[in-house]
Design goal:
alpha/beta; seven-stranded parallel β-sheet; globular; Rossmann fold
């Protein structure tokens, strides 16, 4: 059984991805940092549905903590599917943005990408089969007011993923990015009124976490073996 790690696995998109990968028969390792109870509920749900899952907990911005936790996880075997989903936003116009807002958002998305991906590469490459999928945002493509930090972090992942795709292609490992647009969540409900979504999104609705998860599931499958170095939007035609 192939093993998959999903960072930020307890969030709305992360949990949908975990369920999708479990349905495909992968053992899912649900990463969490501050929401262990939610992660435990999710792993219980996956197991009850006949799937296989466990939890790993660490701060993706802490390189040493990530190394320790991943080394322990790798004792059970290589991870062949990695979904870098952990990310935060802390919005403000750049003229009023504090330095810690800039650095923390970059640390979670961009440094987290390195801290989690790098330790898993050699074991994954050794199997000559792997899938690395990172969740970005349409903000990295279009930009968004108040999100210079978030857009910078996610755009950095685009460049890193395209470069990494070239480095690992000969070992049967693909590297891709999924860039969601406006996806249903509590945060989106607070920020976007239905009429605003109708104006912004050509499909006139928000996407669902499951629609993001379906694409991730495909990119993690055998069928996507010749797709690598791509940034694919899930945005209802927004970009």
């Amino acid at each position: 059984m192939k093993r998959a790690l999903v960072t930020g696995g307890s969030g709305s998109i992360g949990s949908a991805i975990c369920r999708e990968l479990a349905k495909q028969g992968l053992h899912v390792i649900v990463h969490t940092h501050r929401h262990r109870a939610t992660a435990e509920a999710l792993t219980g749900e996956i197991k009850q549905a006949g799937g296989s899952a466990n939890i790993v907990s660490f701060d993706v911005t802490d390189g040493e903590a990530a190394q320790r936790a991943l080394a322990e996880t790798l004792e059970a075997g290589p991870i062949q599917v990695l979904v870098n989903n952990a990310g935060i936003h802390d919005d403000a116009p750049m003229a009023g943005m504090k330095a810690e807002q800039w650095t923390h958002v970059l640390a979670v998305s961009l440094h987290g990408f390195f801290n989690v991906t790098q330790p898993l590469l050699l074991p994954m490459m050794g199997t000559r089969w792997g899938r690395i999928i990172t969740i970005s945002s349409i903000s990295a493509i279009l930009g968004n007011r108040g999100q210079t930090n978030y857009a910078a972090a996610k755009a950095g992942i685009h460049g890193a993923s395209k470069s990494l795709a070239l480095e690992v292609a000969s070992r049967g490992v693909t590297v891709n990015v999924v860039a969601p647009g406006i996806i249903e969540s509590r945060m989106v409900e607070q920020i976007f009124k239905p009429e605003m979504i109708e104006t912004l999104v050509p499909m006139k609705r928000a996407g669902t976490p499951e629609e993001v998860a379906h694409l991730v599931g495909f990119l993690a499958s055998e069928k996507a073996g010749y797709i690598s170095g791509q940034v694919i939007g899930v945005s209802g035609g927004l970009a």
